[in-house]
Amino acid sequence: MFDSISEKIITLLLVEDDDVDLEKILRLLRKTSLKLTIIESMSAAQTLALINSHQFDCAILDYQLKDALGSDLIAKIKSHKNAPTPIIMVSGNSDERIIADVMRDGVFDYLPKRSLNVEQLIKTLQASLDWAESERLLREDRARFNQLAEGLPQLAWTCLPDGRCDFLNRRWCSFTGINEKEQLDYGWLQQVHPDDHEKLMQTWMSSVNNGTEMYVIFRIRGQSGEYRWFDTRAIPQRNDKGDIIRWLGSNTDITDIELTRQALTNSEQLFHTAFDYAPLGMMMSNIDGVIIQANPALRQLLGYSCESEHLLIPTLFELIHHDDFSNTQFQLEKLR
Taking the complete model, does pTM exceed 0.70, yes or no? Predict the structure, then answer.
């Protein structure tokens, strides 16, 4: 951050085609202690030529020019170099719709010419340059993460604080077979299995709204059309103030593990079905002979109702003939 913009030489683009207004703004700037290199432009055409040959720290832009609207230059000025360039728009027009439009287009602030003064100008310049420096550092940090993410074996991504995706690594795009641009924002949801969509969004938005880490498993469709299971995690990255500046996330393919888990679950369900509906009395006990579970057929055989959940007989030794004790104990010991 700039502790004081008076310590830095600021290259400022001043776009104003009215001689009186131009002189007023220059006079206000001269009254400050700022170290300014001011490059003046009297038209949109001249401005376009200047931004192709110069780099500016910030710009003061008139809304109404003779050959164009100042708003037509916003995108060009903002993108004339890699680092962010804040734009302060000055105008005699107080139409709230116009102000809202230019602010939405990316203008840092909108100042009325009529009440423009030194204090207001310095304050706005300071805030705009502080924002630019913060944004520059944020972009550098994002570039470092993106470079790291491209080397990860997992699918990796980042989202804005509100949950909208702004980056997907090449592995994600290669897996889905769809370019990054089509999947940004919430476009990636098109690749999520329909049965997982609702739970995923509930989990994700809960994390976004509460600022908490996310863990969820869901299926993503690959370019072959096959859905694969992914262990998905996201953590919030915060600035010095504790505000979330982005979400960092990754997806790890766990299809083999998930299919094995499902197979075991199905196997267990099949066993319990066979156990419960077997016509023969069956029970499960631990290696000490304590009965854990008895099926309905055994409960009925012992005189219990089929709905009874527990037997009053605590161990299988109370069920078997005393001549079978030794062999039963021997067989249980072999299981230890």
Answer: no
Q: Would you say 124 and 95 are in contact if contact means Cβ atoms under 8 Å apart?
A: no
Other C-beta atoms closer than 10 Å to the C-beta of 204 total 20
CB atoms within 10 A of CB 218: 19
The DSSP letter of residue 191 is G
Round to whole Å and give the CA distance between 122 and 1: 16
- 240-270: per-residue pLDDT in tens? 889 998 999 999 999 888 878 777 777 677 7
> What does the alpha-carbon distance between residue 74 and residue 88 come to, in Å, rounded to a whole number?
10
User: Mean pLDDT of all residues in the chain?
Assistant: 84
Give per-residue pLDDT as tens, 267-326.
677 767 777 777 787 777 787 778 777 878 777 777 776 555 556 566 777 777 778 788
* Domains in the chain: ranges and CATH: 5-139 (3.40.50.2300), 151-258 (3.30.450.20), 278-334 (no CATH)
Residue 190's pLDDT is: 95
Pairing label, strands 227-238, 244-253: antiparallel
- As a whole number of angstroms, the distance between CA 194 and CA 220 comes to 10
Number of Cβ atoms within 10 Å of the Cβ of 335: 7
Distances in Å between the Cα of 110 and the Cα atoms of 23, 36, 90, 128, 334 are: 19, 21, 6, 12, 85
Cβ-based burial of 273 (10 A; exposed 0-12, middle 13-18, buried ≥19): exposed
DSSP per position, 259-311:
HHHHHHHHHHHHHHHHHHH-SS--EEE-TT-BEEEE-HHHHHHTT--TT----
Strand partners, 250: 156, 233
